[in-house]
Amino acid sequence: MRLYNNGFTIMKFLLDNAFLVVIALVSGGMLLWPLVRGRSGSSVTPAQATMLINRQDAIVLDVRDSNDYANGRILNARSVPLGQIDKRVGELARFKDRPVIICDETGARTSQALAAFRKHGFNNAVTLAGGLSGWRQAGLPTEK
């Protein structure tokens, strides 16, 4: 028995099973998306952040306002409210060569903070996916 009767066998299979082909392509894309996004280096999961802190001495910068910061934060996180980044970048310059993890409550405002830090030369800066809420959901420690 020949594997191919004619050149249209593959095309016929694809057309006859279009629904399955679409599902395979979509699910494959969903599996690859985290890898593609991870290469951009724009965000890290709480588990990845923990590894950066423990293995590469990453610093955590909390961009929430002072009251929210006082109510709970990631251990040893430094408070740099979003509106003060440009004013306080000088005191943070010594951390430019270290990994910097930027967080807020949910991750909603961190992309703006990331852009500001990268503008000032913090090329190793990333955001914490899910923010402090995601950190807490992962069962990781916080302090007041």
Layout of strands and helices, then pairs:
Layout: H1 9-16, H2 18-40, E1 43-44, H3 46-56, E2 59-62, H4 66-71, E3 73-74, E4 78-79, H5 85-92, E5 100-103, H6 110-119, E6 125-128, H7 131-137, E7 142-143
Parallel strand pairs: 1-6, 2-4, 2-5, 5-6
Antiparallel strand pairs: 3-7
Mean pLDDT, as a whole number?
86
Q: Give the second-level CATH assignment, the architecture of the largest domain.
A: 3-Layer(aba) Sandwich
Fraction of residues in H or I helices: 40-55%
Taking Cα atoms only, what radius of gyration do you get, to the nearest Å?
22 Å
Major sheet strand order = 1-6-5-2-4
Cα(first) to Cα(last) distance is: 73 Å
What's the number of helices?
7
Question: CATH H level of the largest domain: which superfamily?
Answer: Rhodanese-like domain
> What characterizes the major β-sheet?
5 strands, parallel
CATH class type of the largest domain: Alpha Beta
What share of the residues does DSSP label as strand, in percent?
Answer: 5-15%
